[in-house]
Amino acid sequence: MHFPLSITLLLVAAALHALSGVPGLLLSRCTAAGQRIALALTCVASFLGLVGVALVFMQGTASATLPWYLIGSEPMLLTADGLNAFFLVPVLIVGALGAVYGLGYWPQGAHPGNGRGLRLFWGLVLAGIIILLLARHSVLFLMGWELMALSAFFLVCTEHHLPEVRRAGWVYLVATHTGTLALFALLALLYWVTGSFVLRPLAVDEAGLGTLFLLFVLALLGFGMKAGMMPLHFWLPAAHANAPSHVSALLSGVMLKVGLYGLIRFIGFLPEPPVSWGIVILVAGCIGGVLGIVFAIGQQDLKRLLAYSSVENIGIMLIGFGLAMIGRSQDRPVWIILGLAGCLLHIWNHALFKPLLFFCAGSVIHATGTRQLDSMGGVAARLPRTAIFFMIGAVAICGLPPLNGFVSELIIYLGLFHGVADAKASAWTVAALAAPVLAVIGTLALACFVNAYATVFLGQPRQPQASAGHEAAPSMLLAMSTLAGGCVLIGVLPWLAMPMINQAVQAWDTAVQLRPPVAVGTLLPLPAFMGMGLLLAVASLLMVSWLSRRIKGGNASHRITWSCGFSLPTVRMQYTATSFVQMLNGLSQGVLRTRMHRPRISGLFAEPSRFKTRQDEPVLDRYILPAFLSICAFFGRIRFLQRGLTHQYLLYVGVTVILLLGWTLPVETIFKRLFAR
Amino acid sequence: MNTWFNTLLVLVLALNLFALGTSRLVTMIKIVSLQGLLLGLMPLLIEDHLAVTSALASILAIFLKGMIIPSMLLRAIRDVHIKREIEPLIGLLPSMLLGALVTGFALLFASSLPLAEGDTPPLLVPASLATIFCGFILLTMRLKAITQVMGYLVLENGIYIFGLLLVEAMPLVVELGVLLDLFVAIFVVCIMVNHINKTFSSLDTRLLTSLKE
Question: Cβ contacts of residue A395 below 8 Å, gap of 6+?
Answer without folding.
Answer: A403, A405
